[in-house]
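haha ok so turns out i had the wrong file open the whole time. this is the CORRECT one, sorry everyone. sequence first:
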Amino acid sequence: MISRILKKESFETVARWYWEKRVCGLLVPGERGCAPSEGEVLCAYNEMKSHYPGCKCNVVRSGKSQGDASQRDMFQQGDKICGIRIVTDLNAANSSIEFILADSLYYVHFKTDGIDSFSHRVDTCDLPQTMKNIKEFIDNFPAHLAAFETEKVEFEKKAKLKEISRLSQKTCIAQMMSQLGYEWNLADKGKYFLLQIELGKKRMIEISLNDKNFTKRIPAIPEVIKSVEGLLETMPFPVDISMTKGILKL
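then structure:
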């Protein structure tokens, strides 16, 4: 699972992918053109307050009492429930999750250590199913966090093995080139090495080497150099020769 993104060399990328996969799926789209009823919103409010007394849960409403801090938990004649805002601290890794439904805006916001906080938005919302998902996420957060730590350990192991492999490749190239006697340079391009070999004045060849082609290309390099040198000797004027992957599959 991690191997697909290991090459980016950043655990923050892996971490964000891990949490986005779990958080963005919490919002369940509803029928287009339909909004949750006042009863559904009030039911979601009561469920969250009863299940998680420590969460910050506010009903968003229109009316005279909306802007009065002393009356935000009281309703006056003319008030209308138009949404809900829920913020829950997850008691680990400095994490929290926030859900907002207001004025046809449905989004979830997630914060945790190690990555930038992020939000996900949908145009419609199945509120009962979404609230069920959010409650399950909160209840299962310790398990999600434990699985995340396992992913982190796996990433670090693979990154270490990759580092050892690249050091071994560098050593192998250095040993081979020292025996051939050419001036050379090895450029680390991240995903691959670029081996630059000088064949004399204003003559140079470049060979890309990666994990997949390394064992095939290394033994062939001395013969490749000899062939290219012979070819260049026959050229009546300077030329640039390029062999792409589609042409040369070493």
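The first helix runs from residue 11 to 23.
again sry for the mixup
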